[in-house]
């Protein structure tokens, strides 16, 4: 449903294009669909909570006394952020980025609908190899490589998670 809602929002007669033309920012509709931009917007909509929510939880857990001590020692807000706050949230940021990458490997519907078959993704390529070209041997090799990459990234994710705990 979310993916199809983006068609209504990003289409040539959609809300975004109507708003841009009403504001006078463009004379003709901008093509947001059936290209990388549409797929990126749709995937970001689905995957953003997997980044924001863990990162927000990590930011809440930062001990405020550390920030106060840094301020007491004369550090400015920017220095406190980069040298105290940010390093404490980097493990969660890295783990979330790896998780998002792993999840994006399996995206099929969003690129197929918003990309119109023009934006190649791994899952869409696997569909072509199996269903259209019947190249099972290539699909099997790609699957094994994809599984090894995914398991390696998951191991890195677990290592980061254990290290930050």
Strand content: under 5%
What is the C-alpha radius of gyration, as a whole number of Å? 21 Å
Got a strand count? 0
The shape, in one word, is: flat
Task: Give average pLDDT, whole number.
Answer: 89
| Low-pLDDT residue spans | none
The number of helical elements comes to: 8
User: Which class do the helix and strand fractions yield?
Assistant: mainly alpha
| Distance between the first and last residues' Cα | 36 Å
Report the sheet with the most strands, covering strand number, pairing sense and barrel closure: none
In brief:
78% of the residues lie in helices and 0% in strands.
Topology summary:
Blueprint: H1 2-10, H2 15-22, H3 36-61, H4 64-72, H5 77-105, H6 109-115, H7 122-132, H8 136-164
Summary keywords:
single chain, 165 residues, mainly alpha, 0% strand
General description of the model:
It is a single chain. Helix content is 78%, strand content 0%. It is built from eight helices and no strands. The chain has helices at residues 2-10, 15-22, 36-61, 64-72, 77-105, 109-115, 122-132, 136-164. The longest helix is centred in the middle third of the chain and has 29 residues, at 77-105. It is flat. It starts with a helix and ends with a helix.
